[in-house]
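Each record in this resource describes a single protein on a pair of labelled lines. An example record follows, reproduced without changes.
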Amino acid sequence: MIKRILALVVLLVFAGFVAVTSWPALFLPSLDFVFDSAKFSADPDVMRFRQAVVKIDVVFQDGQGPAPSLSVGRKSGTGFNIHPAGKIITNHHVIYGATGITVSFPDGLSYPAKSWRSKPELDLAVVELGTASLPAIRPDLDRKPLPGEPVTVIGSPLGLESIVTRGTVASYIRLDSIPVPVFEVDATIHQGNSGSPVIDRDGQVVGVIFGSIRYETDEGIETRGLALSLDEAADFINQPL
């Protein structure tokens, strides 16, 4: 009976944050991860990775359906660039309903999106900038990261930018809303990390964060990130600019 109740709680939390905002604002988080990020950021490899991780600001029309509202909303998330001309990977829910997208790099330069496309069933999107000489990070589209493998996640949680966290691939699970297995990341993940790259020890992106999941344990509530392995969307990502 206890297991069934806990499973229901996990599914309801997941359904709620994917359908509404993709993140539950249930608890005020500790800010220890900010201090950890400062330590991790001293790593030369991390400094290089961070240059390709971007903040995505979206303007969207508020409301859906046959008679949507004329009001305008704004939202933001994380993405990462995999091509010098500007090919940004992020989540579908980050850009859903967009009428305009601006991509900002850590060097302070911002670019309007030229075009964008989505694969909603995988909560994945590609934003194209049509420029040149942008910092990029390599994706690995040929393999799934293994449980226990150390990974680095870089993103823009809670309105902050270029926050680095480290953890491990915990396990693969299946969700009703996504047709392929996804993996859990045992790392500090918060609202705004949607679209963050999951980077392996070889410096390649093997996954993209799209949400988080909560478990009740003997020690309390445990939160893990949820990520899509990029090999599941290789054909979509490889479509030409």
